[in-house]
Amino acid sequence: MQMIEKFLFNRKVKKRKRLNRSLGGDIALFILLALFGIFSAYPLIMTASNAFKPLDELFVFPPTLLPRNITFDNFRDLSELIGNSWIPFSRYFFNTIFVTVAGTAGHVLIASMCAYPLAKYKFPGSKIIFMLVVYSLMFAPQVTATPNYIIVSWIGLIDTPFAIILPAIASSLGLYLMKQFMEQIPFELIESAKIDGASEYRIFFQIVMPLVKPAWLTLIILLFQRLWTTDGGAFIFSEELKPLSFALRQIAQGSIERAGTVAAVSFIMMIVPVTFFIFSQSRIVETFSHSGLK
């Protein structure tokens, strides 16, 4: 246990180290980062601003960054359209929450449990398995869409929430991140825990998982953003099983008079994952820097 406490202390000391820069270098770096930050934040600010603009301001050219006359009519129109839907809005919301929570929790648990033996134990075929995992990251989602549909259809999960949850759980990105992070844990910690009589499950949940907390928090953020905006695609056809993003996009489709409603929908779909990311961005940066993922 003393070795575990020493390892945790060394990790905290490393986090406190800073780069030694001059005051001029800090100011120049701050200005450069501020310019990039403003450039990156402009689309987000414009999306939020459009949600509160009246219809006539949405078609002004050149577009204005901030609304001249703030209005909530776009959200009122969206509320009326939702109220007229024959499927309760709460049903769409429940579908999204169920898919997001089940897919995220399942992926974090399965990826972590698979990464642990790959990172800390050597067994026949371990290098080949990890090599296949790395190669799978090279394929775009459009390439794997057809095989995913064939597998899900063969299992019989079409038109069920598990048609979205199962591919999310089987994603190889989480396995790669967790394996790269777990490799940094000294094997002496695991050996000392075994000497103290701890089982493999206790070592995994009480020693390994707390040490790789930034990695699985990053997985939660990435999967949450991905599953929150999913619309079911070609997997779900029943209206009562559709997620929230599908319902909002269907409501927003229509004539040019619904441009304000479209802006309100875009703002609602953006605000949740962006807020989630803002409060957790340090964990994502730390995980990517340790795993070597570009």
From TrEMBL:
<keyword id="KW-1003">Cell membrane</keyword>
<dbReference type="Pfam" id="PF00528">
    <property type="entry name" value="BPD_transp_1"/>
</dbReference>
<feature type="transmembrane region" description="Helical">
    <location>
        <begin position="151"/>
        <end position="177"/>
    </location>
</feature>
<feature type="transmembrane region" description="Helical">
    <location>
        <begin position="128"/>
        <end position="145"/>
    </location>
</feature>
<dbReference type="GO" id="GO:0055085">
    <property type="term" value="P:transmembrane transport"/>
</dbReference>
<keyword id="KW-0813">Transport</keyword>
<keyword id="KW-1133">Transmembrane helix</keyword>
<keyword id="KW-0472">Membrane</keyword>
<feature type="transmembrane region" description="Helical">
    <location>
        <begin position="259"/>
        <end position="279"/>
    </location>
</feature>
<feature type="domain" description="ABC transmembrane type-1">
    <location>
        <begin position="93"/>
        <end position="280"/>
    </location>
</feature>
<feature type="transmembrane region" description="Helical">
    <location>
        <begin position="21"/>
        <end position="45"/>
    </location>
</feature>
<keyword id="KW-0812">Transmembrane</keyword>
<dbReference type="InterPro" id="IPR035906">
    <property type="entry name" value="MetI-like_sf"/>
</dbReference>
<dbReference type="InterPro" id="IPR000515">
    <property type="entry name" value="MetI-like"/>
</dbReference>
<feature type="transmembrane region" description="Helical">
    <location>
        <begin position="92"/>
        <end position="116"/>
    </location>
</feature>
<dbReference type="GO" id="GO:0005886">
    <property type="term" value="C:plasma membrane"/>
</dbReference>
<protein>
    <submittedName>
        <fullName>ABC transporter, permease protein</fullName>
    </submittedName>
</protein>
<feature type="transmembrane region" description="Helical">
    <location>
        <begin position="203"/>
        <end position="224"/>
    </location>
</feature>
<comment type="similarity">
    <text>Belongs to the binding-protein-dependent transport system permease family.</text>
</comment>
